[in-house]
Amino acid sequence: VRLHPKTDGWVEQLYIGTTGAPVKQNAILLSFYSPQIVSTQQEYVLALRNLKTLQASPFEDVRSGAEELVSITLERLRFLDVPDHQISDLTKTLKVKKALHIHSPANGIAISIGAREGQYVTPQTELYAIADLTKVWVLVNIYADELPWIRIGDQARMNISAAPGHTFMGKLAYIYPYAESQTRTVKVRMEFDNPNLLLKPDMFADITIEAGAIEDAIAVPSEAIIRSGLRQQVFILRAPGKFEPREVSLGVS
Predict the structure, then answer these.
(1) 3-class DSSP state for residue 251?
(2) Which 8-state DSSP code applies to residue 213?
(3) Residues 53-86 as b or e (16 or more Cβ within 10 Å = b)
(4) Is the distance from CB of 215 to CB of 169 less than 8 angstroms?
């Protein structure tokens, strides 16, 4: 999750200020002052007071207009990501608050923090990047001649130098539909559970894919293939001491 403010403003206070800190969903990340949010709160309070005054009006159009104004300003607050608990407090107390709380939309780890207290931020500012590292993707480069052996769902074993003697078990989840221009390899994506967070982003790993066997395949040693440059041939034993060349089409090597 990459978190950006919906409007310009200033960071008042950071509640999560350390990269790598665990974050719970709906936890307060920071408080944020925005003149636009303050003015929208003021409009909402005025709309509520106007509705209270006009609720007893004998004219239906007047009452519905006041209700619609409350609904419109409430929607604007929600579009600006004002949290529900602050909207509820504003509705009850009619007191405008300077600071808006920004909450975490997901559980995870704060892998980057893009603002500090007192900093002026805009919608282009990435306030936080939050990642759930309990399940990780591992990207593996596969050579083209290995592609026929692998399938989505194949099991994989992984070892890393940071956890000697420990083998992680995962599966092949996706085969990218293009080759890398420099290496001429194809990336595949593995998924591994990471409950103890031993696997860190950007680590290197050794992967063994438990590819399925190809059944009913005709196989010969590669040394038995005679490659002339124009065709590939094998020699068939017809009788003791008698051999016959046969042209063949090669499959997976």
Answers:
(1) coil
(2) P
(3) ebeeeeeeeeeeebeebbeebbebbeebbbbeeb
(4) no
| Spatial CA neighbour of 97 closest among 16, 42, 28, 30 | 42
Q: Going by C-beta distance under 8 Å and a sequence separation of 6 or more, which residues neighbour residue 186?
A: 141, 142, 144, 147, 175, 176, 178, 179, 180
Tens-place pLDDT, residues 170-192 = 999 999 999 888 888 999 999 99
pLDDT digits (tens, 9 = 90+) for 195-213: 888 898 889 999 999 887 7
Structure token pair of residue 148: 């026929």
Residue type, 97: K
Q: What is the DSSP letter of 127?
A: -
Distance from the first to the final alpha carbon of the chain: 43
Instruction: Spell out the alpha helix ranges (H) of the chain.
Output: 35-54, 60-79, 84-93
10, 32 Cβ separation under 8 angstroms = yes
DSSP state, 18? S
Give phi and psi for 42, each to the nearest 5: -60, -40
Torsion angle of alpha carbons 95, 100, 101, 105, nearest 10°? 120
In the chain, count H helices and then E strands.
Answer: 3, 16
